[in-house]
Write a structure and sequence with these properties.
The complex is a heterotrimer of chains A (about 425), B (about 500) and C (about 425).
Chain A: H1 7-20, E1 24-27, E2 44-47, E3 54-58, E4 63-67, H2 72-81, E5 84-86, H3 98-103, E6 121-128, E7 133-135, E8 175-186, E9 190-198, H4 201-213, E10 220-224, H5 225-232, H6 236-242, E11 248-256, H7 261-278, H8 294-301, E12 319-325, H9 327-340, E13 345-351, E14 356-363, H10 369-386, H11 401-404, H12 408-421
Parallel strand pairs in A: 1-2
Antiparallel strand pairs in A: 3-4, 4-8, 5-8, 6-7, 6-8, 9-11, 10-11, 10-13, 12-14, 13-14
Helix pairs in contact in A: 4-9, 5-6
Chain B: H1 5-15, E1 20-21, H2 24-27, E2 46-48, H3 53-66, E3 69-73, E4 88-92, E5 99-103, E6 108-111, H4 117-126, E7 129-130, H5 142-148, E8 166-172, E9 178-181, H6 201-204, E10 216-223, E11 225-226, E12 234-236, E13 243-245, E14 251-257, H7 261-274, E15 279-282, H8 285-291, H9 296-310, E16 314-320, H10 324-341, E17 344-345, H11 348-356, H12 360-365, E18 377-380, E19 384-385, H13 387-397, H14 402-405, E20 417-422, E21 427-435, H15 443-460, H16 472-479, H17 485-496
Parallel strand pairs in B: 2-4, 3-4
Antiparallel strand pairs in B: 1-2, 5-6, 6-10, 7-11, 8-9, 8-10, 12-13, 14-16, 14-17, 15-16, 18-21, 19-21, 20-21
Helix pairs in contact in B: 1-3, 7-10, 7-13, 8-9
Chain C: H1 8-13, H2 38-43, H3 50-61, H4 69-77, H5 83-89, H6 96-109, H7 115-127, E1 154-157, H8 166-178, H9 194-198, H10 202-218, E2 223-226, H11 229-242, E3 248-251, H12 252-261, E4 274-278, E5 297-298, E6 304-305, H13 319-327, E7 331-333, H14 355-371, E8 376-379, H15 382-388, E9 397-400, H16 401-406
Parallel strand pairs in C: 1-2, 2-3, 4-7, 4-8, 8-9
Antiparallel strand pairs in C: 5-6
Helix pairs in contact in C: 3-6, 12-13
The chains are: A alpha+beta (about 425), B alpha+beta (about 500), C alpha/beta (about 425).
């Protein structure tokens, strides 16, 4: 395992790897590694844990610039000190790299702040497979990072190519990202969390679509009862109590900021209640099954998972299938998953202003490689079956490339690009379609 | 050099006899010099009106085979819409003009290049939706704005830049293959722009578009937002004096004038942090005065009669709330912020113009009025970064522009720049709009001089004032300062268009 | 020598913005009915549009483009309807329509006037009417017992249409009489000359217009009433270019609207409720504004010295025909998407040179009319009538407004 401490180190590693033909695989977060950092026994792992500097947190322009090894656990408190928050994934583990989370396009909790799929990723620095260092968007120049007087937050370009999109969901195949600028938002000064329960996912998906369309909620997530209990129950007792919820639960939070926060929360709460009434769904702020205060649950929701064992691993090993779907197809996909895996945990998260849902199916196969392999196989079969229903795998981990890299023209195009940025194919070979 | 008879017949066989012409009078419609571009355009040898992506692909392959340049055109109001050399053809997408789908639930519309803003905007609005229509005018191509060119727009404060609204893309590569990006690649529909893994969306458009140089975009899905306003806009009057009635207690427009751009900056940031108002922008005063008048003569009267001072640094704010209570809440914050930052309401009779025209699509459609002063105009800078950085860039204009405005080299409007925040003031775009007297034989040299001073100032201060150009010798010079982007762009271009038939 | 040089500023100002091709936002409706230029909608090339005609005019002015039959066909296939001009002027200080007229003048002077137009012009020269019919047949269509006021200073100008369809003139006479308007008819009137002007035959047009103007002057005419949109637009917009016009021109719908407002014309209802849509003839609407000559200098940044009067289509006759229709009990008026200054042309002006284009243009208008749910499309121009009532089954029928109004006048006895 290689531990670079600077961009220069990364550059040297890549040049050396090029010279020796050694494959490189990046690793940014602490364990467990859900998607398998490397499957290539001949590869060297480039571990970014020592590149863990928070380079800048800027309140006015609302961003944080972090090295690849900066974890959510370290970053969130520093952001709060400045009155800022990240658009977080759902309970990311504390040792998860904030940069890697953005590169992997993990589903975010606040769809209104996400205007495009790579959001909250803004700019980044990358070492290509050629050994060249490149900065994207307004971080590209003019001149060096120190000379460039901009805030380096503009994601697009430079010029007529969106380079940063080449590194998202790329699993390190196009370059090793050393730092990135992440979009931040104002930390609310007041908030209210709503719980909406339903017997089926459909009504909640429709409600979520409506709320997002009107740009009302901050955090919004739909969980099935099992994931809900597992995520928010700190103890077996709490978990049991939380299991008393309806089969599907939506969490929806509205916030106020520095100016007249009570008024905003009140107005937006009214909108949530009106929408729930319109969809004939009950809407509560302190449902009876909660074993803790709503505030505690809200606190958990808006932070990373700092517990010893992160929520997904509390039932032992976990295997998951993550997909994207448009709102119109989300319900059918969720129902198909439930029909196939009655015991699965399911998450439905509206993304990009609610124009798509990230659907996650979590299986807990128990200990043992055979059980894990069986779960993976079952998920892969499921993945194939969900495609005609509209499932889209934009983050093709594991065997999913078999399903998505089938179209020759686009395959040829992405391979041409790969050839430009990693001409010797040293970056994570064997992954995706490379 | 004109096309051989045989080749002409081959093109005609693809599009049909009715949809191709090499008549000089038809070619004349796509080679005229326009007042803002100093050089004469080349004439294409033929103009073709393809009807489908398949036809476009066949044309591209034929062009490659015979080393003929092809240029894709819809509205034709940008410099890249012209032939650049002899032995070229123009593909005009007038016939590829279908709205293929408007998906209300998933909020996107699938369109071909020939669909104009004046067609799509009302169609989506009927459905309570809207999109980020650029300030190009009714006849501008939606697809070109969103996928192929720059395309900042005036409601991006509460939304974002159009580039964020580009979803699935179908394009014909420079080799004549039909490439589909995003969720289209796996047959999963139009909703997602990102390819599985590293995204091919990257080469469709960056800050600016590729203007067809990395592929001719034949279909796109445009993401739609909820429209905060009535499904149909009620208007009254006859052109050019129509008025708009918004019919809503939830909608209000206010215009404040400022003396210092840094105060404007503070106001934009404060409003963005509070997430209030639908649109906020520092507008440029010269076009605004032109939009408010009916002729150059009337403009001159008003410009010299008080408008220039009253609108010297206008901050235009539109509130579009869900309810009366929310509107009042937003107004309260707005007025607090304006008070704290030293803004002042402009005279009522001037602000009323905004009220009577308050639909942004309709307002910016009048933006072509800037051409009333002779048509010679040029946006400078036209970049984006943080609100503070854009305000700093624009503040620096004052250090050099007076040498040009005070001496009559360009129009005397030194503060004629706009700053439009986006994503609730996370970023902003800027644009310095200069106009010059086209009857002055030295005007173009002044414009060149100003451009050079502007670039030098930006370089000295290391401003990211615009996205760098990456083509040609100029691209080589600037590319070095921007992470050698010209090198990477050149390699991408070479990988996708080895024959450079899609124009220089 | 054509007038092309006079419009150099216009030609050099065009930025290809496309406003001349597409409907203005104030009238936008959707994907359909968004185009305003018939030649552009039909042929698709940029050259086939106001912008394209400007580009051709510029190349002609600079002697870079030679006339051909195809070009002449296109230039005369353009119906010169003025939609591009209105749209262009909504944001620009350019004289697009005038440049098109100058281009046609250049076409004629270059010897490329299409044969059909040459024949019609010859008809007018020989007989004083477009149809080439003997002048003596003109009044033969009027009733023998027609009484006029020989001393009236108001004339009902009958126009060339009297030769083919006297019903409209008779309806106008009935309206005027019912309203108590004193008027007379001039035996010596000749074709208004609009056709000639639009064909680019400037001298012949001037001669023709001069004859009528002289006649009015000699006869002491102070008001000219016409039921023909073409004649109306001609008197208001073309005549001032070539002759003095010490007379006021009124369309029959303006007179009728005044009479109705004053209670001097009483109307009876339709037999059954009737939904109609009104088609604005170009020459009654956007092209009918009084022409104000301007000679001057265009200085830096578009300053016109002396100040120029702009015709932008704003002061066309739009409301009186609608007022008249709404005044008839039982009538419900529904507007098409493209109406008033944005009206889609009927296409009649292309009939001689490009019948396919004319049929397409009229078909578009009928389709748009049907889309409103109206049972009939109403207008008040003989050429619109010809275009919008072609043979065969149509989505809506055509009604002439003057005739329709006359048919719903309530006679004293009925009252």
């Amino acid at each position: 395992m290689l531990f670079p401490e600077s961009t220069r180190d990364v550059q040297d590693l890549v040049l050396e790897a090029r010279r020796t033909g050694t494959p490189l695989v990046p690793l940014s977060s602490g364990p467990p590694h859900f998607h398998g950092a490397s499957v290539n026994p001949a590869a060297e792992t480039v571990c970014f844990s020592r590149m863990d500097h928070i380079l800048q947190i800027d309140r006015k322009a609302r961003y944080a610039r972090v090295e690849a090894g900066v974890t959510f656990g370290a970053l969130i408190p520093k952001m709060r000190e400045k009155g800022l928050r990240l658009n977080l994934p759902f309970l990311p583990r504390a040792n998860k790299s904030a940069l890697a989370s953005a590169l992997e396009k993990e589903a975010v909790l606040i769809p209104k702040y996400q205007y495009d799929y790579p959001d909250p990723l803004l700019t980044l620095e990358v070492v290509f497979g050629t050994g060249d260092v490149f900065r994207t968007g307004s971080a590209s120049g003019p001149g060096t990072m120190e000379e460039n007087s901009s805030d380096k937050v503009l994601p697009w370009g430079p010029g007529s190519v969106d380079y940063y999109r080449l590194f998202t969901a790329a699993q390190g195949t196009f370059g090793l990202v050393t730092w990135a600028t992440l979009k931040a938002e104002v930390l609310p000064s007041l908030s209210r969390l709503f719980f909406v329960q339903a017997e089926e996912p459909g009504p909640l998906v429709r409600l979520a679509n409506h709320l997002c369309r009107e740009r009302i909620p901050d955090e919004l997530i739909i969980l099935d009862r099992r994931n809900f209990a597992q995520a928010f129950g700190d103890t077996p007792e709490e978990e049991k109590a939380l299991s008393g919820a309806a089969p599907w639960i939506m969490l929806c939070r509205v916030c106020g900021f520095d100016r007249y926060p009570e008024e905003r929360v009140d107005i937006y709460s009214g909108y949530v209640r009106e929408a729930c009434a319109k969809f004939d769904l009950p809407c509560e702020t302190a449902p009876a099954f909660l074993p803790c205060t709503p505030e505690k649950l809200e606190e958990t929701l808006t932070d990373c998972d700092r517990r010893e064992v992160c929520w997904k691993c509390r039932r032992g090993p976990e295997r998951e299938l993550v997909l994207l779907a448009p709102p119109s197809k989300t319900t059918a996909i969720a129902e198909a998953i439930r029909a196939r895996f009655p015991e699965a945990g399911i998450l439905l998260q509206p993304q990009v202003q609610g124009r798509a849902f990230r659907v996650e199916c979590d299986l807990f196969p128990g200990e043992g490689e055979a059980a894990a392999a069986e779960a993976e196989e079952a998920l892969f079969r499921m993945a194939r079956e969900l495609m005609p229903l509209g499932a889209y795998y934009d983050r093709p981990y594991g065997r999913l490339p078999e399903l998505v890299y089938t179209e020759p023209v686009s395959l040829d195009a992405i391979r041409r690009l790969k050839k430009i940025f990693d001409p010797d194919g040293i970056l994570n070979p064997g992954k995706l379609c490379f | 050099m004109s096309l051989s008879e045989e080749l002409y017949r081959e093109f005609a066989a693809i599009v049909g006899e009715k949809n191709i012409s090499r008549e000089e009078y038809i070619l004349a419609g796509n080679r005229a010099q326009t007042p803002e571009i100093p050089m004469a355009h080349k004439s294409a040898d033929a103009i073709l009106l393809p009807g489908s992506a398949e036809e476009v692909a066949q044309i591209v392959r034929l062009c490659n085979k015979h080393r003929i340049e092809y240029v894709g055109v819809v509205a034709g109001c940008i410099p890249t819409a012209y032939s650049t050399r002899e032995n070229s053809i123009i593909m005009h997408f007038k016939r590829m003009n279908r709205i293929l789908e408007i998906n209300e639930e998933d909020r996107y519309a699938v369109i071909e290049p020939g669909v104009r803003h004046i067609q799509l905007y009302p169609e989506v609005r009927k459905r309570g939706l809207s999109y980020t229509a650029a300030a190009v005018g009714p006849g501008g191509s939606v697809l070109v704005n969103i996928a192929c060119t720059g395309g900042d727009h005036h409601v991006q404060y509460g939304t974002s830049r159009p580039t964020r609204y580009l979803l699935g893309v179908e394009m014909v590569t420079p080799e004549g293959e039909i490439l589909r990006t995003g969720s289209l690649q796996t047959g999963s529909g139009w909703f997602c722009p990102e390819s599985p893994g590293p995204s091919l969306r990257s080469i469709v458009k960056g800050y600016a578009g590729n203007a067809g140089k990395l592929g001719i975009v034949t279909k796109i899905a445009v993401a739609l937002d909820r429209c905060k306003g009535p499904a149909e806009i009620r208007t009254e009057g006859i052109s050019p004096h129509h008025k708009v009635f918004m019919d809503s207690d939830c909608s209000r427009v206010y215009v404040f004038n400022y003396k210092d751009i840094q105060d404007v900056c503070r106001a934009m940031l404060a409003l963005g942090e509070a997430e209030v108002c639908a649109t906020v922008q520092k507008y440029f005063y010269l076009p605004l005065t032109l939009m408010m008048t009916d002729s150059a003569n009337e403009f001159w009267k008003k410009w010299t009669g008080g408008y220039k001072e009253a609108l010297s640094m206008p901050l235009v704010v539109h509130i579009a709330a869900h309810s009366l209570r929310e509107r009042e809440y937003e107004e309260k914050i707005l007025f607090d912020v304006v008070r704290e930052t030293g803004g002042e309401r402009i005279p009522r009779e001037l602000e009323k113009w905004w009220e009577e025209h308050m639909d942004y699509f309709m307002i910016v459609s009048r933006l072509q009025s800037v051409l009333r002063l002779g048509g010679s105009w040029l946006p400078q800078k036209a970049g984006a970064e943080s609100v503070q950085h854009m305000c700093d860039v624009c503040e620096s204009i004052g250090t050099y522009i007076h040498d040009f405005t005070d001496t009559g080299k360009i129009f005397d409007a030194p503060e004629n720049y706009q700053i439009i925040p986006m994503e609730y003031s996370h970023f902003a775009s800027n644009e310095l709009l200069i106009m010059w007297d086209r009857t002055d034989p030295k005007a173009m040299s002044y414009v060149g001089e100003l451009g050079a001073v502007s670039r030098a100032t930006d370089a000295k201060r290391h401003f990211y004032s615009s996205s760098p150009g990456v083509a040609g010798k100029a691209g080589e010079a600037t590319g070095r300062l921007y992470s050698n982007v010209h090198v990477w762009m050149g390699r991408i271009r070479e990988a996708f268009d080895p024959f450079y038939q899609s124009g220089l | 020598m054509s007038d092309l040089n006079r419009f150099r500023y216009t030609m050099e100002s065009c930025n290809h913005c496309g406003q001349c091709k597409w409907i203005l936002p104030s009238r936008m409706w959707g994907w359909d009915f968004a185009e305003v230029c018939p030649i552009h909608a039909r042929y698709g090339f940029d050259a086939c549009s106001g912008q394209g005609l400007l580009n051709m005019a510029r190349e002609r002015m600079e002697n870079k483009l030679q006339w051909s039959e195809g070009m002449a066909k296109l230039v005369h296939g353009c119906t010169a309807c003025g939609a591009c001009d209105v749209n262009c002027k909504s944001v620009r200080d350019m004289e697009l329509q005038e440049t098109i007229y100058a281009l046609r003048q250049d076409c004629a002077e270059s010897g490329f006037l299409p044969e059909a137009k040459r024949r019609t012009a010859e008809n007018i020269r020989k007989t004083g009417n477009r149809h080439g019919l003997p002048p003596e047949e003109r009044l033969a269509r009027l009733p023998e017992d027609l009484t006029e006021d020989e001393n009236a200073d108001t004339v009902l100008f009958l126009g060339c249409d009297i030769y083919r369809r006297p019903e409209t003139a008779l309806a106008a006479i009935r309206i005027l009489k019912a309203g108590g308007v004193r008027f007379r008819i001039l035996r010596e009137e000749r074709c208004c000359g609009a056709y000639l002007w639009r064909a680019g035959l400037r001298e012949q047009a001037a001669e023709q217009m001069g004859q009528n103007a002289r006649l009015f002057r000699e006869q002491g005419i102070r008001t000219v009433i016409t039921a023909c949109a073409e004649c109306f637009g001609s008197f208001r917009n073309y005549y001032p270019r070539v002759t003095e016009t010490p007379f006021e021109t009124k369309h029959i719908t303006q007179i009728a609207a005044e009479l109705i407002r004053d209670g001097r014309l009483r109307l009876r209802g339709t037999e059954k409720p009737l939904t109609l849509t009104y088609h604005d003839p170009c020459m009654l609407g956007r092209l009918s504004e009084t022409y104000v000559p301007w000679e001057g200098e265009i200085r830096s940044y578009g300053l016109h010295v002396p100040e120029k009067h702009w015709n932008r289509g704003e002061n066309g006759v739009y409301d009186p025909p609608r007022e008249v229709l709404k005044a008839i009990p039982g009538v419900t008026l529904k507007e098409m998407v493209r109406y008033k200054e944005e009206a889609w042309c009927c296409g009649a002006q292309a009939q001689e040179t490009d019948p396919d284009l004319a049929a397409f243009t009229a078909g578009e208008r009928l389709r748009e009319a049907a889309f409103t749910g109206a049972e009939a499309i109403v207008s008040c121009c003989p050429y619109c009538r010809d275009a919008l009532s072609p043979e065969g089954e149509q989505p809506v029928r055509y009604l002439d407004l003057t005739e329709f109004l006359a048919a719903h006048i309530r006679e004293e006895a009925e009252a």
